[in-house]
Amino acid sequence: MTAKTLYAYTLQPVNYEVSEAEQRNAQLMIWRSTNKISLKAWAIMGAVVVLALLGIALIKNYSTIFCWVAIVCVIVYLLIRKFGLEWYVKRKMNEFPTQEIKGIRLGVQPHGLVMRQQMGAQEGVGTVGWKDMYEWYNTPEFLLINFKVKDQQGAYILPKRMDSRNFPFETIRKHLRESVGEPKQI
């Protein structure tokens, strides 16, 4: 048995550094998860296309032009929603700088995630308890944990590469499943 299987928490906090690319990727994935076309919108588009196709089949001469316009409008809406909005969001995200995350060490303990940061001659310590976390996402690249402490919201982006540095992701997942529930899908 290794020390990792004997003790499921961190003995020493590990360095917590998230690059700008990792932050942008997490932001984009979260935005994609919120940019879903609703069932109501799909039903409306389906009805418009069906009515337009019926109009093309049943109406003759120049009167069918409004049916073709309706079909084109549905296609343009889907293209804008799929490609145009993502392009716009990427452009807007690049306008705002990300905050560099360096000099922080993070540990996993039975009561929550412990963050340590050197502040001059002193070391600041903060803990986010498992009960303070209200949602989480488990993606192939990272864990995203949203929390609220003293009416202030925050988030941890935990890159999966940290799992190889004695940072127990399985313990985090276990506690999150117990206190929050299953991860949300992106």
Q: Could you tell me the number of beta strands?
A: 7
* Global geometry: elongated
The H/E string reads: HEHHHEEEEEEH
What is the mean predicted local confidence, pLDDT?
Answer: 84
Strand composition percent: 25-35%
CATH topology of the largest domain: PH-domain like
Q: Main β-sheet, in a few words?
A: 4 strands, antiparallel
Q: What is the tally of helical segments?
A: 5
Uncertain segments are: none
**Strand adjacency order, main sheet:** 1-2-3-4
Oligomer: single chain
Q: Helical proportion?
A: 40-55%
Structural class: alpha+beta
CATH architecture title of the largest domain: Roll
Rounded to the nearest angstrom, the radius of gyration is 24 Å
Count structural domains. 2
Between the first and last Cα atoms, what is the distance in angstroms?
A: 35 Å
CATH class placement of the largest domain: Mainly Beta
Task: Set down the secondary structure blueprint.
Elements: H1 3-6, E1 14-18, H2 20-34, H3 39-58, H4 65-95, E2 101-109, E3 112-119, E4 122-129, E5 133-138, E6 142-149, E7 152-159, H5 169-179
Antiparallel strand pairs: 1-2, 2-3, 3-4, 5-6, 6-7
Helix pairs in contact: 2-4, 3-4
